[in-house]
């Protein structure tokens, strides 16, 4: 944890034996071990909290990026739809005006030709089919 080698730990142990004494050394070593364990757990908890916060920030950034991309795609689709809609509407208007012109062109001809439901002027006269060749 602290980057101490075995030799350094041995020197620290000898100094502790001399300073603390052989009777209290096991109790002090146990207490130091418990404190070191708590310190390691605390450091690990802080690391995991920091990592969790970093992950949350990364997820939030990813979410923002995805939303931005989705908005850009939506705008692009709307632009494409509009760019396709304009020529289609223009073509529809052209076809409508061409259809109206065709109707106007054909409508005077219909006035000159008799309608199917109206009888011809000559159709009310009966024909003589007696073979005499004269019509009544």
From TrEMBL:
According to the UniProt entry, which residue ranges have a biased composition of type Basic and acidic residues? 106-127
Its subcellular locations are: Cell membrane; Membrane
Keyword flag Chaperone: no
Whether Transmembrane counts among this entry's keywords is yes
List the biased-composition ranges (Polar residues).
93-104
* Record membrane topology: Single-pass membrane protein
Q: Name one Pfam family in it.
A: TatA_B_E
Keywords of this protein's UniProt record, alphabetized? Cell inner membrane, Cell membrane, Membrane, Protein transport, Translocation, Transmembrane, Transmembrane helix, Transport
**What InterPro entries does the entry give?**
TatA/B/E, TatB
Which residue ranges does the record annotate as region Disordered?
67-136
**Record Gene3D superfamilies:** 1.20.5.3310
NCBIfam families membership: tatB
Family of this protein: Belongs to the TatB family.
Assembly mode:
The Tat system comprises two distinct complexes: a TatABC complex, containing multiple copies of TatA, TatB and TatC subunits, and a separate TatA complex, containing only TatA subunits. Substrates initially bind to the TatABC complex, which probably triggers association of the separate TatA complex to form the active translocon.
The job of this chain, per UniProt, is described as: Part of the twin-arginine translocation (Tat) system that transports large folded proteins containing a characteristic twin-arginine motif in their signal peptide across membranes. Together with TatC, TatB is part of a receptor directly interacting with Tat signal peptides. TatB may form an oligomeric binding site that transiently accommodates folded Tat precursor proteins before their translocation.
PANTHER family per the UniProt record, alphabetical: SEC-INDEPENDENT PROTEIN TRANSLOCASE PROTEIN TATA, CHLOROPLASTIC
Name recorded for this polypeptide: Sec-independent protein translocase protein TatB
